[in-house]
Each structure stands twice: as structure tokens, then as C-alpha cells.
User: Fold this.
Amino acid sequence: MARPKEFDPQAALAVAMEVFRRQGYEATSVQDLVEALGINRSSMYAVYGSKHDLYLKALERYCSAEAGKAAQDLSGPGPALPALRTFLMSYVESALADPDRAGCMVTHGVMERLPEDEKAAERLSGALGSLEDAFRFLLLRARAQGELAPGTDVRGAARFLVTLTQGLRVMEKAADRAYLSQVVDQALKSLSPTS
Assistant:
């Protein structure tokens, strides 16, 4: 007799993360989650707690992965602004590769859960802060390498880029590659020392 397949909580958490990323918190029902995870409600509650608890765990995992990607993509040696363009265009390319244009769990969370959900706000604020830090370190390098004007407000520019990334995540549902690429190029032009 075949043994039943063992439940892997980390693999199931990755599945839940994808469900929340694609549907958002409000549109995701407990039934959606148990079907996607392949477990019953009581098992889901026993392992993860409530739907909200599972969402927070999935959000934490998503934010950690995104922060790691940003830190890795933006911290390498060499010219900083081309690395920044590559990073921003990776948002565009990943959006356009998704036929559903499902978007970003952080962006969905900001629009759906704030300001009422304090626990989600803490995680989302941390994720956006990590992205701001990654941009700030890259821009400091760019300024030191002469890619930015010496007096560039690096913190303000980093916050501008965080807001830009969130705008790209929203506009990916409505715009095409040419539109989104033009936005990225305009943002980079605004950072150049000659603008």
C-alpha cells in the first residue's frame, strides 16, 4: 500500500504566497487556500493559524525574497545606473511574461491592507524600506562614480525609485512594454547629472 504524500509546510507556504500574490488578500477565500494547498481547513488552521496568519507568513516570505533579489541585483560592481535600469526593466519583463499580469504581493498589500492592518503594515513598511536602502546604496555608489551630480539627494532619489517601482507594478496591468520602458528611461534621465 502506498504511503500518503507527506505535507511540506514550506512548500505549501510558497503555494499560498502565490495565491495571495495573484488574487490579493480580500479576493482569496479560505476555500481557495485549502484547494491550492491540498489540505483540509483544520490542517490549515493547525499549521498556519487563521487566513490572516497565513497571509502574514506568506507576505514575510515574499518580502524576504524580494529584498534579497534587490540587494543582489543592485549591489554588484561596475556602473550603477545601467544596473538600475536592468533591475527596473526586470519588473517590466516579469510583468509582461505573466499572462494574468497578477502583479506584486507588496503592491496588493499596500492597496488592500493599509492602513488598518497593523501587522501587514509592519511587514510592508519593512519591505519598502529594504528596497529604499538597496536603491540608496546603489545611488551612493553612482554618485561616487560620477554617474550622478555631486549634490544629488540620494535619499529623496531612492524614495522616488521605490514609488516608481510601485507605480510600475500598478501600471503593468494597463500598459505595454513601450510605455513601461519609456517610464523607466524617463526616471533614469531625471537622475542623470545633465538633466
About this structure: Residues 118-144 form the longest helix (27 residues). Residues 1-5 have pLDDT under 50 and may be disordered. The two ends are 71 Å apart (CA to CA). DSSP finds nine helices and no strands in the chain.
